[in-house]
Amino acid sequence: MGRVFVEHITGKAYCCKYCHTHLAKVEELLSKQFHSKNGPAWLFGQVINVVPGPKEERLMTTGMHVVSDISCTKCCALLGWKYEAAHEESQKYKVGRFILERAHVAEAAPAVLPPPPRGRLDSSAPPLSFFDSHSSDVDDHYF
Questions:
Q1: What is the separation of C-alpha 12 from the centre of its chain, rounded to a whole number of angstroms?
Q2: Pairing between strand 29-36 and 50-60?
Q3: Using CA atoms in the order 93, 98, 99, 103, what is the torsion angle rounded to 10 degrees?
C-alpha cells in the first residue's frame, strides 16, 4: 500500500471519531435531519479524506437510491455514504452529496498553524536556496 496523503482544514471542521482525520468544513453541513440504521446522520455538500466503495442500489426510507459507502482514508472506518443517483425526482437534490453517520464523526480541534515565514526583506533571514544567495546573471549558464 502506498503512502496516505491527508488534507487538513483550517477553521472549524468535523473529523473521523477514530483517527481525527479532517472530513468536512462546518459550512458544508447542509442538514442534520437524516437517519441511518445506526442513528442520526448528517448531509454534507462536500467531504474530504474519504474513499468511495462500489456503487449499489439501496432501498431507503425515501425510495431507491444508488449509493457508494465511504470510508476514512486513514483508518478505513466506514463513515457513511455518497448519493450517486436517485430514482425519484423529489430526491435528486441529494445526488453528489454525502451522509456522515453522527456516531463516527467528532468536532475537530482548531488547527494550530505555525507562524508565517520571515519576510524576504528581512536581511537576517537565510536564503531559501543556493540560487537565492547568488545573482541570476552568474547562475544562468547552469540551466
A1: 13
A2: unpaired
A3: -160
User: C-alpha dihedral over 37, 67, 101, 92, to 10 degrees?
Assistant: -100
Indicate the helix (H) or strand (E) that contains 138: helix 136-139
- Global model pTM greater than 0.90: no
State the pLDDT at residue 109.
Answer: 75
Which of 48, 49, 45, 133 is closest to 96 using CA atoms? 45
- The predicted-structure confidence for 27-61, as pLDDT tens digits, reads as follows 999 999 999 988 999 999 999 999 999 999 999 99
Bridge-based pairing state of the strands 39-44 and 29-36: antiparallel
Q: Where are the alpha helices (DSSP H) in the chain?
A: 136-139
> How do 50-60 and 39-44 pair as beta strands?
unpaired
**42 with 102: CB under 8 angstroms?**
yes
Q: Which residues of the chain have pLDDT under 70?
A: 1-2, 110-143
Across all residues in the chain, what is the average pLDDT? 84
CB 57 within 8 A of CB 49: no
